[in-house]
Amino acid sequence: MAYELLSTRVAFVVANEGVEEPELLRPWHAVADAGGEPELVAPQVGMVETMRGFERTGRFHVDQVTDRARATRYDAAVLPGGLANADQLRMDAATVDLLMAMFEAGKPVAAICHGSLPLIEGDLVAGRTVTSWPSLQSDLRNAGAYWVDRDVVVCRQGINTLLTGRGSADLDAFCGKLVDVFATAAVPA
User: Residue 104 sits in a domain of what CATH number?
Assistant: First the structure.
């Protein structure tokens, strides 16, 4: 077992329902297997309910709520997908504030599938090369991003490193890049 992320604290920022389970769990395990410390951050205390498509699949305990989460506590952040998840997060001011603070501190952020919606809300994608689920390409372009149809994109042209992934089918590539990006770009909390 490698320990590239030893003592690296990673915020997995999700809504309390609607997060796509594989897009939460696969990156979570990649971080944990690399020695990182993942924490589940959501708008409300209690549990997060995950989905696979339209079917509810699991429940996970929230470690921290967004209105108490601080960028200084984390070295990096992950935004899993799920349309309902991402749409709720973009409307949560505390989530957007946390992500803006992560960017301003130069900390790496990773988003997969619909996970980039809160980044649009925070005006954090302008001038960045990104990928996402194809239905978001107009939203991202309208927010000033350069959207490309690739499995994974690492963009270092900005105030932080931004990793984006297209969707669940690309999780192998996304998780592989996630550990590399966080190991080289993480700013200690």
Answer: 3.40.50.880
Quick: pLDDT tens for 49-80.
998 877 888 899 999 999 999 999 999 999 99
Domain carrying residue 52: 9-185
Count of structural domains within the chain: 1
Q: Residue 39: enclosing H or E segment and its boundaries?
A: strand 37-42
Concerning whether 155 is annotated as a catalytic residue, the answer is no
Q: Residues 61, 114, 155, 175: which is the catalytic one?
A: 114
First to last CA, the chain: 24
Of the residues 29, 61, 113, 155, which is catalytic? 113
What's the rounded Cα separation, in Å, for the pair 123 and 125?
6
Structure tokens at 131: 């990928």
Q: Which amino acid makes up residue 46?
A: G
CB of 128 closer than 8 Å to CB of 147: no
Q: Which distant-in-sequence residues (6+ apart) come within 8 Å of 134 by Cβ?
A: 149, 166
Whole-prediction pTM value?
Answer: 0.95
Any domain includes 70: yes
**175 in active site:** no
